[in-house]
Amino acid sequence: MEDMLELEVHDLEVPVLTGIYSEETHLPQPLRISLSVLLDAPARFAPDTPLSASKNYMHLKHAATDALPPGVHFTLVEAVADHIAETLFLQDERVRRVKVKIVKLAIAEQGESIGITLVRHRR
Q1: Which residues contact 62 (CB under 8 A, 6 or more apart)?
Q2: What does the alpha-carbon distance between residue 107 and residue 88 come to, in Å, rounded to a whole number?
Q3: How far apart are CA 46 and CA 43, in angstroms?
Q4: 4-16 and 115-121: which strand pairing?
Q5: CA-CA distance, 95 to 39, in Å (whole number)?
Q6: 71: β partners
């Protein structure tokens, strides 16, 4: 069994152009995005282990925020999740799995979480 490191970023609120209904397609919708990335882990993390042995958490945040193309309309939130996963796979060859959870905040009526979770493995 291989050692793995899981990095996580949760509950980013990101405005994204997404949706299939006319009332959804003109303005960005608020999405709550959480993601976890599974990386190959070194045999040990010593006190002086450099950041390069892991991954900067800000790269995860960037993939779910600034790396989303401005002005592009994603019909499905699944496509948003795929774009985030692909960005992370391209950033770092050590990434083995990306899990992206997206909650569509605008359609909640009583505080419930409505959305998707997509898991992609490096192929």
Answers
A1: none
A2: 28
A3: 10
A4: unpaired
A5: 5
A6: none
Assess contact for 38 and 95: CB atoms under 8 A. yes
Residues 88 and 12: their CA atoms lie apart, in Å, by 16
Q: Can you give the pTM of this predicted structure?
A: 0.92
Nearest to 36 by CA among 6, 80, 81, 79: 6
pLDDT range class, residue 14, cuts 50, 70, 90: very high
**CB 66 within 8 Å of CB 4:** no
With beta carbons less than 8 A apart as the criterion, state whether 117 and 85 touch.
no
Output the CA torsion 44→101→57→121 (10° steps).
Answer: 50
Which pLDDT score, from 0 to 100, does residue 24 have? Answer: 67
- CA–CA separation, 33 vs 26, rounded Å? 21
Rounded Cα distance between 53 and 62, Å, is 19
Rounded Cα–Cα distance for residues 114 and 75 (Å) = 16
Give kind and range of the element (H or E) at residue 82.
Answer: helix 77-91
